[in-house]
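Private note to self, pasted from the team thread so I don't lose it. Backbone tokens:
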């Protein structure tokens, strides 16, 4: 019906430590939304397909060295370069399921010892997520899952620091999901939260900037 013309999609972000199961839950959510006939796309940050993304990717693979501040700003620029497309997609009714966002940016860089407010500053003005789903797992449990790919941050000691930073960042609006539950249980919880969020956005919840 013509009522659907102005309906917007939801900006849904999954966060968590490396090996928390974000990526597979993102693709499960994407298939679920497709089955429901809800227009949705799967996004991820860093988006390694852009020029900036390639610089980040080479840094993560230890093929290049960059100062902590420089790489932080590249991660942020990588979100900024996708901002207008993101807004257009949302406004045209597409829901975005995003694997990592600004919170990863702040958690990972501040885990290196950089000032958290400095880390947040370049994120201000990006689109605020409608829902943040945090897949909660201890660094020790995540490490037991194995398969750390050997990229720069995939080490237990560093993941412990990242975990502490995520703890500082969380607020009452985040949904914390126990990532140690069976995959299907996690999936079930996520489906419900995502579905409700999409409905709230359809019903007029407005898009706002990240503060
Ligand atoms: P990925 O494994 O999800 O592709 O992410 C690559 C790594 O980059 C992961 O260890 C988290 C880290 N990261 C940051 O340090 N800052 C950011 O802004 C983002 C999105 C990821």
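Design output:
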């Amino acid at each position: 019906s013509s009522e659907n013309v102005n309906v917007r999609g939801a900006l849904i972000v999954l966060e968590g430590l490396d090996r928390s199961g974000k990526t597979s839950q993102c693709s499960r959510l994407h298939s679920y939304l497709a089955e429901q006939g809800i227009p949705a796309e799967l996004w991820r940050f860093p988006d390694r397909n852009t020029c900036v993304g390639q610089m980040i990717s080479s840094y993560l693979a230890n093929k290049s060295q960059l100062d902590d501040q420089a790489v932080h700003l590249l991660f942020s620029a990588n979100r900024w370069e996708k901002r207008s497309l993101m807004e257009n997609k949302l406004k045209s009714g597409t829901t975005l399921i995003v694997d990592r966002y600004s919170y990863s940016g702040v958690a990972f860089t501040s885990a290196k010892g950089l000032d958290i407010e400095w880390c947040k500053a370049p994120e201000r003005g990006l689109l605020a997520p409608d829902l943040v789903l945090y897949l909660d797992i201890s660094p020790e449990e995540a490490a037991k899952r194995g398969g750390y790919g050997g990229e720069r941050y995939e080490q237990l000691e560093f993941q412990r620091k990242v975990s502490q930073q995520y703890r500082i960042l969380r607020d009452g609006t985040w949904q914390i999901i126990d990532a140690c539950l069976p995959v299907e249980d996690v999936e079930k919880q996520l489906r419900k939260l995502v579905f409700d969020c999409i409905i709230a956005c359809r019903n007029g919840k407005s898009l706002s900037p990240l503060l």
